[in-house]
Specification:
alpha/beta, 2 domains, globular, about 20% helix, 3 helices, about 30% strand, single chain
Length: about 300
């Protein structure tokens, strides 16, 4: 056993200095190895100690209430994994944005703004819209937010044209990313998998026949490039782990997306065509598509950011 102290890191009274002493056990079999290898093992433990000390210092200086709080503060300083984030522009102001219409079978529950363009307000059906006196937007009991359409009073038409343009730019950006980390991962059958940060590329359909986990930190990112359709089966779920955020997960889908009854989805959908949500399906994220969105007692919640 080798004992060593780190007095420079011991920000405690002298009588507590012994608490900064670390014991490193070196197996007897290692003692016959060259000194350089033994020192390498010691340096490894020093690095581990340094991380632990950083957590302790962060906890003390920032007033963290627990080791878990300190670890979260430390993780915020680490390098993010995954591709560069996709800039949604003003399309990121919407929970649902579509070009040719949005329909709902009541009651859906939408947290965030809803918009259509270049189609008119008539393409938003099932919402029982209530006009705002100035005519720049409408409201609905199914939406915690505002509903916008291309034929609302100015400046809404410009707002909507810009948002749809930003959606199309974001789609082109995400679909055009190169040098994927994974190609045809698990042949597109993502049910039962745990997906780490990275750029994923699929030449065909992607499906979730069972539950799936997306695991990473709050700073990590994911982009899934899907040339075909994407679907999640009834009552199946995508779950986030390790602090991963739906706002950092982008599904860029050339085909349609279908969400089975009672299913739950996470992330930003950038779709070239439609998105269909069956009865009591739910989603934490955004639905940004270039044709239509259909909802059936669906819950869509705009995602939190880091």
């Amino acid at each position: 056993m080798v004992m060593y102290n780190h007095p420079r890191h011991c920000h405690r009274p002298p009588d507590a200095a012994k608490r900064c002493r670390v014991a490193v056990t070196i197996p007897a079999t290692d003692l016959s190895k060259p000194v350089s290898q033994i020192m390498l093992r010691l340096r490894f433990h020093q690095q581990t100690l340094a991380v632990c000390l950083m957590v302790a210092v962060l906890a003390h200086s920032a007033g963290a209430k627990s080791a878990q709080d300190a670890q979260k503060r430390l993780s915020s300083l680490t390098t993010a994994l995954g591709p560069a984030p996709v800039n949604l522009g003003t399309a990121g102001d919407f929970a649902i944005l579509a070009k040719s219409g949005i329909s709902t079978v009541p009651d859906s529950v939408i947290t965030g703004d809803v918009g259509v363009s270049p189609i008119s307000q008539d393409a938003m059906t099932g919402f029982s819209l209530t006009s705002y006196p100035e005519g720049t937007f409408t409201t609905s009991t199914q939406v915690t937010g505002k509903l916008y359409a291309a034929n609302d009073i100015a400046p809404t038409p410009v707002k909507m044209t810009t948002a749809v343009g930003d959606m199309e730019i974001a789609y082109t950006d995400a679909a055009g990313r190169v040098n994927p980390d994974h190609v045809e991962y698990n042949s597109g059958a993502l049910g039962g998998t745990t997906l780490s940060p990275g750029l994923y590329k699929f030449g065909t359909d992607v499906g979730f026949s069972t539950d799936c986990t997306i695991s990473g930190s709050s700073r990590d990112t994911w982009i899934f490039q899907i040339a075909g359709d994407m679907s999640i089966a009834a009552n199946k779920r995508i779950t986030l782990a390790g602090g991963a955020l739906a706002s950092n997960i982008v599904w860029v889908v050339a085909g349609k997306t279908t969400h089975g009854a009672g299913s739950h989805f996470e992330g930003i959908i950038l779709g070239a065509t439609s998105a269909d949500f069956l009865t009591q399906s739910s989603m934490n994220g955004r639905v940004l598509v270039q044709t239509a969105v259909t909802l059936q007692q669906t819950t869509v919640t705009s995602p939190c950011t880091a």
